[in-house]
């Protein structure tokens, strides 16, 4: 890769990986809905500013609005809320490992969403390996895992499935500029989550440490908007297959930040699950 491509790659991996740690910090001070709504809203503003700056037009026909709404649900509102709620129960490290299963669900759901996309033996083996890794990580090595692990892991797994479905669905609209899609889906997600959080009481205006609001800004700008734009630029500079490799670096970043700055334990089962998930996902992505 060229130096500029490496920069885009690093921004995407660091941004998406750091988002798990930022979410972990934020949910200790705000409700999960507040965190999800703030993340979507701030990211929409930041991405919208970038799109205006580079002069990209965002189509607003009825068809496009329907696409933004569906993607807003699948890749914004539901996963943002699920990840935030899940991290009330599990560490950011574990959440990132579970989230790395996106390629596995993309493979399994592909034949249901896209015509002509079948399942190949080696890819299925990779998917099974990865899913076993998720089970190992979430179980913590116990036959009967703690309820908190199951709840947090299940919510994060649901977020990964939503992202996989959204990624497959967006392939039907490759003619639409990805930057326009990003803005549209983030605005839709922000609108939906804002309604929910206002009905739930809204983000508190008073908090013991006002600087904690900066966590939400960082989550929206550097943990969401910046890596989304970086992925688009990386695809433009290289290829979609190269950009997909970011998925494998996200949990490395999240686990490292969690261990170094959040004192999250690096357990043997987390490491084993981590290796299995990334190994399975690697087979899925690289097998033709």
Summarize the structure.
The chain is mainly alpha-helical. It has helices at residues 3-26, 32-54, 62-86, 92-99, 102-113, 121-139, 147-170, 178-199, 213-237, 240-244, 246-261, 268-286. The two termini are 22 Å apart.
Q: What is the number of helical segments per DSSP (H or I, 4+ residues)?
A: 12
**What does the radius of gyration come to?**
18 Å
Q: In percent terms, what proportion of residues is strand?
A: under 5%
| pLDDT < 50 stretches | none
The global form is globular
Provide the domain count: 1
Largest sheet: none
Would you list the SSEs in sequence order as H and E?
HHHHHHHHHHHH
Helix content: over 70%
Structural class: mainly alpha
* Strand segment count: 0
Distance between the termini: 22 Å
Q: What do these coordinates show?
A:
This protein is mainly α and 288 residues long. 77% of the residues lie in helices and 0% in strands. It has 12 helices and no strands. The longest helix is centred in the N-terminal third of the chain and has 25 residues, at 62-86. The chain is globular and about 50 Å long. The two termini are 22 Å apart. The model has no long low-confidence stretch (mean pLDDT 87).
